[in-house]
Amino acid sequence: MSRPENEAQYLASLVPPSVRGVDRRTVLRGALGIGALLGTGTLAACGGGDTGSGGVPTGPVSGTVTVGSNQSDAVPKAAVQSLMDAFQKANSGTTAKINTVDHNTFQENINNYLQGSPDDVFTWFAGYRMRFFASKDLAGDVSDVWSGITGMSDALKKSSTGDDGKQYFIPATTYPWAVFYRKSVFEQRGYEVPKTLDDLKALGTTMQKDGLDPIAFGDKDGWPGMGTFDQLNLRINGYDYHVSLMAGQESWSSDKVKKVFDTWAGLLPIHQADPLGRTWQEAAQSLQQKKSGMYVLGSFLAQQFEKGSEQDDLDFFTFPEIDSTIGTDAIEAPIDGWMMSKRPKNEAAAKKLLAYIASPPAQDILVKADPSVIATNDGADTASYTALQKKTVEFVKGAKSIAQFMDRDTRPDFASTVMIPAIQQFLKNPKDIDGLVNSIEAQKKSIFGS
Amino acid sequence: MATTYRGINQLSGRDKVIVGLMVVVPTLVVVWLVWLPAIGSVLLSFTNWDGIGPISGIKTVGLQNYRDITTIYPPFWPAIQHNLIWLAVMFFVATPLGMFLAVLIDRGVKGTKFYQTSIYLPVVLSLALVGFIWQLIYSRDQGLINTLTGSTVDWYGDPSVNLWAALVAATWRHSGYIMLLYLAGLKGVDPSLREAAKVDGATERQTFFRVVLPVMRPINVIVLVVTFIESLRAFDLVWVINKGRNGLELISTLVTQNVVGEASRIGFGSALATIMLLISSVLVFFYLRIVMKED
After folding, report:
1. Are the beta carbons of B41 and A447 separated by less than 8 Å?
2. In the CATH scheme, what is the homologous superfamily, with its name and number, of domain A24-175+335-385?
3. pLDDT tens string B231-257
4. How far apart are alpha carbons B251 and B272 in whole angstroms?
5. Transport: is it a keyword of this entry (chain A) (predicted)?
6. ipTM rounded to 2 decimals
7. What are phi and psi of A124, to 5 degrees?
8. A401 - beta bridge partners?
9. Taking the domain B79-241, which CATH number applies?
């Protein structure tokens, strides 16, 4: 659950600046203070004992291990709690102290958090977002934990690996992006799952005749549109190009990117109108109320559907093929998981905990709590999965390449300060694609060049 | 016991230390909390620091941030424009409205307590709540306005509408605040002044504009200053709506977008903050000139 799940949670993240202290002065005060803090922090850590990194202990561990968690919602919070309880039970003498921080606050403060005194292990995401902090020397090497892990694919290992070839991340759960729809609507109207872009457009036209919004869409928060861009780019230009574009190695003003926006512009008439004033939850509800026919989103959209028969009615297909030479074997499935801080106070227990989190029983606890995600370990118990989860497992397994998500695959500052406004600009005025991509490219050069 | 004041020499040693501390400590606090960050902000605006690593690792980039802001950063000019609109609306609509409400209530409209409470309510509500209330009203698919009128105006998504929608919400808050300030001022006006005016045959209108308003000069100045500050700081409501994007850009939100977050562009954000500092300095300059002239 990388996203706010409901209005209340979303609003809770928007603590007024007077309270949170987000004004120019405070930010700078913090920034100026960091230098001083860094000096003392480092010294203190050097003096503090256990620096031996002798792999994952096989015997019992003891003491307190601190856990930083962004799982602030009631359900996942309880899941983390029972995860830690299970760990404590198996390792008597060890206490896992959970420090839960509101989801968005956690993300926005990650810089200060990691440079201050972070918890021994903490929740984070795979991809560039993880590599960025690893390359800034703010994360702990967990390669030795990885060497003991079974049941995780090479693709997972790759997305847990930093630029230096060491692992810095332990995957826990994942959820794919795809085109979601209600089975009952498709059955009732006799719709068929579109295989190609032309099929999709034809289906869209039929749906419009039937009084439906073909593709639900909400981009008020700025990020859901990134998912549509990613899908189109993966289908039009393929996985490798997508990854290097995200890494800043390709020009955004190239014909390849223009084609993505062009194709998108051609699809906008079958999207729900006025996406910029609608949250993803509102868009998902229009699918739930059978006012829309399809929705391109992550499987967390199931959270807007009631558990039981309503969620059973939810199904999905991969984004249709656009170029037959590219195919549809690349998908997007962000991985959520855990990292270890650079200098954990209790390294032995931290590594033992991470090894436990990678194991099937631990992941069973997590996916049971939130059935909109699936476990990353193949050994996890899929018998109790919902139909949607079972299909998700096959979907992810069948993919040749897996992208994360735009804001996880590229520099976060580029994603949030350039791409969110740019995509919103495109949705406002889909005609000026040249001006748009030139503006993105100019800003990209400035950010990636720094 | 009347002794003539002989200057600082009259104070005992301990008193001198205390007086000294009373001067030095606040000065240090102001320097540390206000001046150092402000100067630091200006200095950082010439760098590309990302907020990670020691200060010694900062690389200066000269005026590049300022060049980028004014040339290739699309939200900047809309933000300047929106800030000016914001200022104008607060000045010419929200503040007069608050004053008008205060005068009405002061004259003793029926149910004063009720109006006073309901108008002041938005000021005490948490901003998250204010944002949530207006989301219920403005939402395109599920909002009150569109449900009642059957319109499909995208109040928060259409960039030519959402600034005004946000300004209505901001006016709602600001007027209540100004009303309360002004009401306090009006209550402080000596009633005998009004009576004297009445005896002299002045109409209600004349009494207010010729007598009451000039007497309330200090309050008027405070109201103007509060309006200025609130408009420049305009941030929270817009941030609650859509984090200050898509038609709701303000300089303060751009600063926050760039500085706060996972991989912050502290240098770039500082340059934006410096521009904001310059703009507010102009206003501060004029304000100080007016105040100094008075003295």
Report:
1. no
2. Periplasmic binding protein-like II (3.40.190.10)
3. 887 888 888 888 888 889 999 999 998
4. 7
5. yes
6. 0.82
7. -160, -170
8. A330
9. 1.10.3720.10
